[in-house]
Amino acid sequence: MLLSYSDEAQNIKIEINKRNFGSQYKVKNYLGISMLVIKCEDMFAHKLVAMAERNKTAHRDIYDIHFFLNNNWEINKEIVEKRTEMKFADYLKKCIKFVENIPDRGILSGMGELINEKQKAWAKTKLKKDTLFLLRLILAP
After folding, report:
1. Residue 1 — very low, low, confident or very high, per pLDDT cuts 50/70/90?
2. Which of 47, 54, 46 is nearest to 22 (CA)?
3. Which residues contact residue 68 at a Cβ distance below 8 angstroms, ignoring those fewer than 6 apart?
4. CA 47 to CA 53: how far, in whole Å?
5. Distance (Å, rounded) from C-alpha 16 to C-alpha 102?
6. Using alpha carbons only, what angle is made at residue 59 by residues 54 and 60, rounded to the nearest 5 degrees?
7. 0.90 exceeded by the pTM?
8. Among 32, 30, 41, 43, which residue's Cα sits nearest to residue 1?
């Protein structure tokens, strides 16, 4: 579901998921409606899993993961391990290889309409490299 305050405002994407992976939620109020919203560390875990397991690459996942890493969000490692049936470090290595193999020329695919021109210029030149750097930092002892 997409919501927007006005025609000029960016859309807000709302996803409803009924699968149970042990995610935790908190109550948030949006436009006068109380709703359960997934906790940040759980959202990050699900996004990390989705990035490398989609049938088709969603470049917005890389953008989101960069945002989460750059803002020092925690990752619920238990969710990653439960969903992937892999140790967290092993799955992170898989994610790094996945991002390394993404062609640079299509990095804006699927997200060009979601970001402004300055963000597009940055994404074209730095998104992949910076995301790989931040993912590797998590693995560093």
Report:
1. low
2. 46
3. 40, 43, 44, 47, 75
4. 10
5. 28
6. 100
7. no
8. 30
Domain boundaries, position 133 = 39-139
- Strand pairing report for 33-38 and 12-13: unpaired
Average pLDDT over residues 63-90: 95
- What's the mean pLDDT when you consider all of the chain? 85
Domain membership of residue 118 (yes or no) is: yes
Taken as a whole, the chain contains a residue count of 141
Residue 3 has pLDDT above 80, yes or no: no
Q: What was the pLDDT predicted at 103?
A: 86
Look-up: residue for tokens 């020329």? Answer: 105
- Among residues 51, 56, 55, 133, which one has the least CA distance to residue 98? 51
The 3 state secondary structure assigned to the chain is CEECCCCCCCCEECCCCCCCCCCCEEEEEECCEEEEEECHHHHHHHHHHHHHHCCCCCHHHHHHHHHHHHCCCCCCHHHHHHHHCCCHHHHHHHHHHHHHCCCHHHCCCCCCCCCCHHHHHHHHHHHHHHHHHHHHHHHCC
CATH of the domain at 107: 1.20.58
Asked if residue 81 is part of any domain, the answer here is yes
Confidence of residue 19 (pLDDT cuts 50, 70, 90): low
